[in-house]
Amino acid sequence: MEPSFHLSKPAHEMLESPSQTFPALIAFGDSILDTGNNNWLFTMTRANLPPNGRDFAGGKATGRYGNGLVLSNLIGLGIKFPLPAYLDPNLPREDLATGVCFASAGSGLDELTAKTVKEVEAYNISQVVMNRDS
């Protein structure tokens, strides 16, 4: 069976020149991309316990849903690594200009999913962003 999604050409050919770079990386999504936002939320969906993180730098759980890098980290190689969690209270303001991860494990477009696990609803992330510094 043929894949239902494909790019018209390889990603490296989409750049105007081989030296072109991306100025920032912004990630939205769920646990596949979450780099630790759930550590700062009152939720039952957290990955800050072993075995998560055992293969990550330092060997400790960082809130990533995996034993090492999550997809947003892999995408960020060469752009921004590691991609910091937006809700991390130690996040320097300067990092906002070069990229952050807004992904939150358990989030979704279905309002019931987010309410069940007390998670950030995908369509409501703008309120979290606007209220962060207030």
- Compressed to H and E, one letter per element, the order equals HEHHEHH
* Count of alpha/pi helices: 5
Radius of gyration: 16 Å
State the low-pLDDT regions, or none. 1-7
Structural class: mainly alpha
**What's the story with the biggest beta sheet?**
2 strands, parallel
Number of domains: 1
How much of the sequence lies in strands comes to under 5%
Secondary structure tally: strands: 2
Q: What is the typical, i.e. mean, pLDDT?
A: 76
Q: What form results from the Cα inertia axes?
A: globular
Helix content: 10-25%
| Sheet with most strands: strand arrangement | 1-2
Distance, first to last CA = 51 Å
GO cellular component, one term: extracellular region
GO biological process, one term: lipid metabolic process
GO molecular function, one term: lipase activity
InterPro entries: GDSL_lipolytic_enzyme (IPR050592), Lipase_GDSL_AS (IPR008265), SGNH_hydro_sf (IPR036514)
